[in-house]
């Protein structure tokens, strides 16, 4: 198995001419009756060996965590981080295995964050300095991991830990409140969304690693944007008004997703949509059939959108100014 990024690298290395690669892309588009940009390709599993390696790595790292925790949680975290880094030297740098690289990255940064929280949070449960220290250390690890291994998801992980640092620092200065956290998360979501668009704009044809980086950033931005909005609406009570607002917001998210050619916003908001309508149907006495109704309506709608994704994009982009169209993936 190989990705479009592998094709581009093969052209750069002189393995095949660019015309051959372009002809192959056109053949795949014609065969699948789609446009490759619309497929949102990203490397995850190249073969079952990826899953095999992940299982073995998780078992080994879990053993290191357990043995280290017998002495101290910080030791357990250090052993997992060091073990993940050493495994990445082979499976990421040499073998370029996508799924193991992602798992090893999360193990490396997550073990550092988790060990610090486990070691100090019980003694200082009300202090914002403990999560600040944990996020800051995880950020440094993510930075080092990026410069060494260049795994696409690392940029999203680094951004997430940096957001944690900023929110923890603000929480250490100002009194904690759910409204403050929601506001900060929403602002962070806007910033991450704009950052993802910047990466997307640098690779409109989505043939390089920059498109993968943008994909993970969109996946991070989506819950940051969606959660504060829907959780705030849900606090006011679930009724017909909230259901209609939810439909309108989801339609807006769908239009945005179509324009930027990314489905992450819609996927992230889906759980909130299902929750709102399940609660509403239960409140009007349709408890027994609420799941079936929601599954039929939402599932059918998403399937229809998937089928007509490309023609809908073409019509939406035609309504936008030429300057905007020049910044977005093409819809030929």
Describe the fold and architecture.
The protein has 14 helices and no strands. It is mainly α. The longest helix is centred in the last third of the chain and has 27 residues, at 209-235. α8 (178-201) packs antiparallel against α9 (209-235). It has a domain at 4-234. It is globular and about 60 Å long. It has helices at 4-12, 18-32, 48-69, 73-91, 98-120, 129-149, 153-173, 178-201, 209-235, 240-260, 264-283, 290-307, 309-318, 322-325. The two termini are 27 Å apart. The chain crosses the membrane at residues 51-68, 74-93, 102-121, 127-147, 154-174, 180-199, 211-230, 236-255, 264-281, 287-309. This is DUF2157 domain-containing protein. Keywords: Membrane, Transmembrane, Transmembrane helix.
Keywords:
14 helices, 332 residues
Using only C-alpha atoms, the radius of gyration works out to 22 Å
* Largest sheet data: none
Query: Distance between the terminal alpha carbons, to the nearest Å?
Result: 27 Å
* Overall strand count: 0
Overall, the morphology is globular
Transmembrane segments: 51-68, 74-93, 102-121, 127-147, 154-174, 180-199, 211-230, 236-255, 264-281, 287-309
Organism: Pseudidiomarina atlantica
Keywords: Membrane, Transmembrane, Transmembrane helix
Protein name: DUF2157 domain-containing protein
